[in-house]
């Protein structure tokens, strides 16, 4: 456990976003970061998947080869890493430190293996699960997003089923948000984080 002093030095509590691919994590967190400019900072993960149109290296992800990623993992550069849908993903220590150095609330978008592994660290985040209203809605959203091949889509849907069960495990998440209507889900998210947002605004305004 971190004592009060180290906690204060590390800045505000990070926030973990998890939930099935296509549940709306990126949509919600981008909205949040836009509205609360200077409050949140995104932990830019590493991945071996290819960038999608519109995604930027260093902003959405650090896009790397398996070799580069494995070497960095072996080097102890990562807080956690996982294999998802045939690709490697991971949170580097540097990604989180870069956000915490600016005294911002660090946002992590990670899968359920990441959640399990972060629970073994002293990061002490708020765990938020974003869930879709149903598998049918999730499938429609993923298809309409037009980012996945049929094979990748099927892999994501299979992982989603496991994820939806995982999110029901007692004590796994602090907040569960069902993303049916976007504005409602966003309202719930802001409400869940209102105390942390208030604290960061106060501290950063007076410094
Ligand atoms: N464990 C872990 N999972 C990650 C990390 N970065 C992204 N993910 C997860 O990997 C999954 C796939 O992400 P992505 O390929 O961007 O697809 P999308 O979720 O459909 O937009 C999602 O569940 C993400 O939350 C990471 O650093 N660690
Ligand atoms: N509440 C919602 N209603 C309808 N479509 C949504 C909603 N939330 C997100 N979407 C859409 O669903 C797709 C998946 O959302 P995205 O944020 O990419 O999910 P994730 O980051 O969890 O994989 C996107 O095309 C997004 O625009």
UniProtKB/TrEMBL annotation:
- One function term, GO molecular function aspect: ATP binding
Q: Does the keyword Cell cycle apply?
A: no
- Could you say which EC number(s) this protein's record lists? 2.7.4.8
User: Which compartments is it annotated to reside in?
Assistant: Cytoplasm, Cytosol; Photoreceptor inner segment
- Listed InterPro entries: GK/Ca_channel_bsu, Guanylate_kin-like_dom, Guanylate_kinase, Guanylate_kinase_CS, P-loop_NTPase
What is said about its interaction partners and assembly?
A: Monomer. Interacts with RD3.
- Protein family per UniProt: Belongs to the guanylate kinase family.
Task: State what protein this is by name.
Answer: Guanylate kinase
- The scientific name of the source species is Sander lucioperca (Pike-perch)
UniProt lineage: Eukaryota, Metazoa, Chordata, Craniata, Vertebrata
- Gene coding for it: guk1a
């Amino acid at each position: 456990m971190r004592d009060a002093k180290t906690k204060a030095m590390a800045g505000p509590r990070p926030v973990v976003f998890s939930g099935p691919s296509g549940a709306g994590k990126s949509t919600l967190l981008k909205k949040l970061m836009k509205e609360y400019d200077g409050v949140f900072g995104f932990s830019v993960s590493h991945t071996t998947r290819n960038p999608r149109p519109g995604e930027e290296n260093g902003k959405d992800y650090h896009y790397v080869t398996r070799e580069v990623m494995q070497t960095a993992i072996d080097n102890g550069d990562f807080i956690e890493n996982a294999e998802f849908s045939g690709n490697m993903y991971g949170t580097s220590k540097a990604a989180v430190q870069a956000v915490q150095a600016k005294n911002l609330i660090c946002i992590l978008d990670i899968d359920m293996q990441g959640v399990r592994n972060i629970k073994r660290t002293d990061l002490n985040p708020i765990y938020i699960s974003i869930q879709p209203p149903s598998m049918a809605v999730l499938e429609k959203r993923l298809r309409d997003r037009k980012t996945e091949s049929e094979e990748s889509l099927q892999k994501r849907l299979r992982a989603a089923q496991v994820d939806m069960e995982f999110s029901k495990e007692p004590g796994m998440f602090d907040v569960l948000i069902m993303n049916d209507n976007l504005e409602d889900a966003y309202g719930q998210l802001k409400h869940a984080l209102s105390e942390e947002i208030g604290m960061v605004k106060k501290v950063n305004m007076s410094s």
